[in-house]
Design a protein that fits this description.
heterodimer; A: mainly beta; three-stranded antiparallel β-sheet; B: mainly beta; seven-stranded mixed β-sheet; four-stranded antiparallel β-sheet; 11 strands
C-alpha cells in the first residue's frame, strides 16, 4: 500500500534561514510526487511536482528513489512562506487518486 | 476562468440531520474528489468519481454518500450528521483524460460544525 510520511507536524525557522520539509513515501512502482501548499485562509494549491523539475517561489524538491524521499527545500525562507505544506503521491496503481501526508505547518519568524 | 466552487462555506447543523455540501467545477474535469481535513490527520479521502455515474469509496466513507449525475457536480451528503463529522471539507478535481496521475485543483473548503 502507498503511504506518505511527513515526520514534522510543525517547523519553525527564522527569515533568511534555509528550510527543508521532509517527505518520505512507500510505493511499489514509479510514483509521481507533489507538494501542495495552503496559505492562511486560502485553498490548497499545487506548489510543484517532481515531473516538472521546476523551482517555484524559490522552492525545489528532488525525487530520491533510493531513499524514497521528496524533500522540499528553500535556501532562504521568507515570512510569506508560512503555510501548511502537504506532500502527495500518485501513480498508476492508485489510478488518479492521490495519497496525502499529514502536512507540515511552516512558520517563518521575522 | 475555470474554477471549482463549494457551498456553503460555513454550515452549522445538529446531530442526526441530513446535510448536503455542494461542489461545482467548470474545468470539465473527469475526476472529482471529496476530502476532510482534521488536525493530526491531514487530508483524508472520503469519496471520489472518475466520471458521470461513477462513484467510489475512499478511506473514510462511512456516513457519507455522493452522486455524479453530470460532469460539473459532485455533492456530498451526510446521511445523519454526527459530531465526529465536524471538519473542514475540500472538494477537488483533476483532468484524468490523458493520465492517471494528475494535479488536483481544490475548492475553497466548507467548514461544517455538527452540534
Amino acid at each position: 500500500a502507498q503511504r506518505v510520511t511527513q515526520p514534522e507536524k510543525l517547523l519553525s525557522v527564522f527569515k533568511g534561514a534555509p528550510v527543508e520539509l521532509k517527505c518520505n513515501y512507500s510505493y511499489s512502482g514509479s510514483p509521481e510526487l507533489f507538494w501542495y501548499v495552503q496559505y492562511s485562509r486560502q485553498r490548497l494549491q499545487l506548489l510543484l511536482r517532481h515531473i516538472s523539475r521546476e523551482s517555484i517561489k524559490g522552492f525545489t524538491a528532488d525525487l530520491n528513489k533510493g531513499e524514497t524521499s521528496f524533500h522540499l527545500k528553500k535556501p532562504f525562507a521568507q515570512e510569506e512562506d508560512s503555510a501548511m505544506y502537504y506532500c502527495a503521491l500518485s501513480g498508476w496503481t492508485n489510478a488518479g487518486k492521490s495519497t496525502f501526508g499529514d502536512g507540515t505547518t511552516l512558520t517563518v519568524k521575522p | 476562468d475555470a474554477e471549482i466552487t463549494q457551498s456553503p462555506r460555513h454550515k452549522i447543523t445538529e446531530t442526526g440531520r441530513q446535510v448536503t455540501l455542494a461542489c461545482h467545477q467548470t474545468w470539465n474535469h473527469n475526476n472529482m474528489f471529496w476530502y476532510r481535513q482534521d488536525l493530526g490527520h491531514g487530508l483524508r479521502l472520503i469519496h471520489y468519481s472518475y466520471g458521470v455515474q461513477d462513484t467510489n469509496k475512499g478511506e473514510v466513507s462511512d456516513g457519507y454518500s455522493v452522486s455524479r449525475s453530470n460532469t460539473e457536480d459532485l455533492p456530498l451528503t451526510l446521511e445523519s450528521a454526527a459530531s465526529s463529522q465536524t471538519s473542514v471539507y475540500f472538494c477537488a478535481s483533476s483532468d484524468g483524460a490523458s493520465s492517471s496521475t494528475d494535479t488536483q485543483y481544490f475548492g475553497p473548503g466548507t467548514r461544517l460544525t455538527v452540534l
